[in-house]
Design a protein that fits this description.
This protein has helices at 32-49, 53-68, 75-88, 92-104, 111-123, 127-136, 145-158, 162-174, 181-193, 197-209, 216-228, 232-244, 251-263, 267-279, 286-293, 298-310, 317-321. The chain is mostly helical. Residues 1-24 are annotated as: Disordered.
Length: 324
Amino acid sequence: MTGENKSPQTKPKSPRITTPDSDAGLFCSPTRADIEFEQVRRSQDCWDRNHKWSVSRALRTELLNATFLGLYNACSTSLLPCKIRYASANETEKAIKTFHALEKFNVEVDSAAFYALLRALCKNKNTQEAEELLLTKRGFFPLETAGFNIVLDGWCNIFPDETEAKRVLEGYGKYCIAPDATSYTHMICFFAKLRNLFDSLRLYNEMKRRGWVPSLKVHNCIIYVLTSEGCIKEAFNLLNKIMALGLQPDLKTYNSMILPLCEAHRLDEAREVMKMMSSGSVRPSVETYHALIKIVNSEAVFELIDRMREHGCRPVANTYLLMF
């Protein structure tokens, strides 16, 4: 009995991203989708050779799903996570090159994807690169307040730089873009942290003059910078004003006064704010009590610790260290 010749079994290979060019008659010539998928396949091979398994595996899985669904026009959406991963891994140049590659093959990229890349760059302290990309691509994505706010947030909160933040703020006028409430909030809070009273009040008044209503967060920052710079009366007046406006002061509002008052050893004013805090049904935090413990005498320390327990603030190790 003659046995059938069996081909030797081979180990199955991991799935690769390919175009369905084996189906004769369906694809007479390479389409744009075929070219895009070929570029992704080559990129995947490059990542494999450099042992970047996580990026390669994620990219393969995302685009295989798109292939099985027949979504060849999903390249832009599928490559967005890859761009963000590059930015998160501090691979700034590769993240931007991936974005340029989409435009090269005429893949439409919406503003949401573009802003997501800018946020990822700023989040990983590549604010300068994000700003350059924003200005370079203004022919494709017109300059808008939202884009500038992303860069401004990077210079104010993620990688703080007063000079750069002021330059970006001047850029709003240079490119005929009107700052919005978010723009003013970023700058006012940033200057308040630096205890820059002049610029904080200047932008606060400009914000109101242009019709933007300051939020409680903005008021908290102004109260903090006023108290820090010794304008105690003005800080109390603003605190009473925001309550008259219907805003409910929170823990951050009262701490914005108590912490700098304790730092300046102005115990009487700090205790007055604590009374207002209690009348407003706001519970002090551990940070609040620590600021007071630093400046009171030894007898008052134990009283404060008892009050901490009454308000549900359990003393921590640092609490007892501050006593000595």
